[in-house]
Amino acid sequence: MKATAFAPGHISGFFEPIYSPDLCRTGSRGAGINISLGAVSEVFISASTIQNFEVFVNNKRSNDKVTLLALKYLFGDNLLKVVVKTKLHLPVGQGFGMSAAGALSATIAAAKIVNLPLGDAIQAAHFAEVQLKTGLGDVMASSFGGIEIRKSAGLPPWGVIEHIPGNMELVLCVIGKKLDTKNVLNNSFKASKIADYGKLCTKKILNNPSIENFFSLSQTFTKKTELANPQVLKAIDAANQYGMASMCMLGNSVFATGKTNELCKVLSSFGKVYACCVSESGARVIE
């Protein structure tokens, strides 16, 4: 039996990590954009005498820990053979929420095959990601879609998301090597700055939930947390001539909106460029 699902990538402009002994309440507050580039997973399930999960990412056998753990949360000890073939549209470790999109698209397709509720699929992917510290709020955001404010952390009913209306073209640029989210979050000096400014920016976006304010606060967060390297800061300044830009949290990459052609041109001198738009629908089964 087979099903295919898509989960949008997710870019956080700013965030405040929230930890709890209960994984349902762990996550992040903040704001971000779900994008039309993400992950498509084809899942095949068959009966088996042992439990066997196989994951392939972009046609290569993968030890994708997030997807494997998410499948374990979804299926428990059930004896099944599950084969996942995931296509990622963007690189991992660059703040595009690819590990979340990969895991979520896999669990949604798998849940469809065995008639499990969508909520179980979202919970399994969320648990895996927050436990492995590859991200905090990406799964919840990706399941929601659009431009979102994560007002409170975790899964519903604890996690609450508000929507900022808007749909625009975006230009992404990968500028340097990938950032390890876990290392950043485990650095107490960086983590305390992220928490302080993430809290402040979330409060301010809730007072004025607009695209312009989102980009302005994202730039403030980028500069105050000192997470951006000089090349990323230069790319943001260059892009600001043709629109609004900021750093993708957490990656050596930027996202921008405005004059798409000019943004593609100016950012291509900094690194690999991708064009996309807002994904207004969240993660879903596509066949």
Q: What are the low-pLDDT stretches, counting only 5+ consecutive residues below 50?
A: none
The whole-angstrom Rg is 18 Å
Helix content: 25-40%
Task: Report the CATH C-level class.
Answer: Alpha Beta
Looking at the chains present, what oligomeric state does this protein adopt?
A: single chain
Can you name the CATH architecture?
2-Layer Sandwich
Structural class: alpha+beta
Q: Tell me the fraction of residues in β-strands, as a range.
A: 25-35%
Question: If you had to describe this structure to a student in words, what would you say it looks like?
Answer:
The protein is α+β, with helices and mostly antiparallel strands and 287 residues long. The chain has a single domain (1-287), classed as Ribosomal Protein S5, domain 2 (2-Layer Sandwich), CATH 3.30.230.120. It has 9 helices and 12 strands. It has helices spanning 65-75, 98-113, 118-132, 138-144, 181-186, 188-207, 211-225, 230-239, 260-267; strands at residues 2-18, 27-47, 52-57, 60-62, 80-88, 147-152, 160-164, 169-174, 243-247, 253-258, 272-277, 284-285. The strands form 2 sheets. Strands 1, 2, 3, 4, 5, 6, 7 and 12 form an 8-stranded mixed β-sheet that branches. A 4-stranded antiparallel β-sheet has the order 9-10-8-11. 50% of the residues are buried.
SSE arrangement:
Layout: E1 2-18, E2 27-47, E3 52-57, E4 60-62, H1 65-75, E5 80-88, H2 98-113, H3 118-132, H4 138-144, E6 147-152, E7 160-164, E8 169-174, H5 181-186, H6 188-207, H7 211-225, H8 230-239, E9 243-247, E10 253-258, H9 260-267, E11 272-277, E12 284-285
Parallel strand pairs: 3-5
Antiparallel strand pairs: 1-2, 1-12, 2-5, 2-6, 3-4, 6-7, 8-10, 8-11, 9-10
